[in-house]
Amino acid sequence: MDGAKRPKLDSSWVDDADGSHFPIQNLPFGIFSxxxxxxxxxxxxxxxxxxxxxxxAAVEGLLDELTFxxxxxxxxDSLNDFMARPRADWQAVRARLTxxxxxDAADASLRERPDRQSRCLVPRAEVQMHLPAQVGDxxxxxxxxxxxxxxxxxxxxxxxxxxxNWLHLPVxxxxxxxxxxxxxxxxxxxxxxLQLDKADPTKxxxxxxxxxxxxxxxxxxxxxPSPNPNPNPNSNPDPNPNPSRSPSRSPSPNPxxxxxxxxxxxxxxxxxxxxx
Length: 276
Fold this sequence. Notes:
The chain has about 280 residues and is α+β, with helices and mostly antiparallel strands. It has six helices and eleven strands. The longest helix has 15 residues.
């Protein structure tokens, strides 16, 4: 199967898929559970008002033509294993799903099997969504000019919003992985020391929730499935590259260990601030 060539289908046999937010042209992956059926968190794909259970689809043999072992990749409670696959495998999975869900697709192994449909399709309104990936670590890139300008104006005033190097140097900083939560989780305002009267510091401070909250739109990407073999700032892995020199002392342990790539994400920000 050529994963790069997806069947050209514009309609699905799944009820309410055509014209919905999740037609056959938009098959988003996620992790879901379904209490009524006793389904623990597992990978799935939204299609219309349903979710296609990828773990069950693999058990049914519907994904056997893929070049990797689908029951293993889709057998867990996160998409990390799937995200670690090469791009060609992602394309092959999407092509296979399009072939299974397309109204006029040649493959009828799901379309004409109501028994399989009852096992593989779950009503989307009844599922609970979970974090799609195990996030072990991430780097947040300060990449939106509008956002950086808004923040810079608060600290440096209008006309001096951006530091001179902002347009030339990617600004990235470490993020706290525990702050990544599933949609719908209540937002907890962080607490800190606040000045009681902004115009009169002599009135003291209080420890209270922040008064302003920033809303941002983030785009996330998983940059690489395997660890960087040489994560040190020095790109030369040989501590003694010149044989004419006496051996140098052993290099100190790497102070910046590479996190587990299967649990790592890099967040690339595309933001517009909305303070509340």
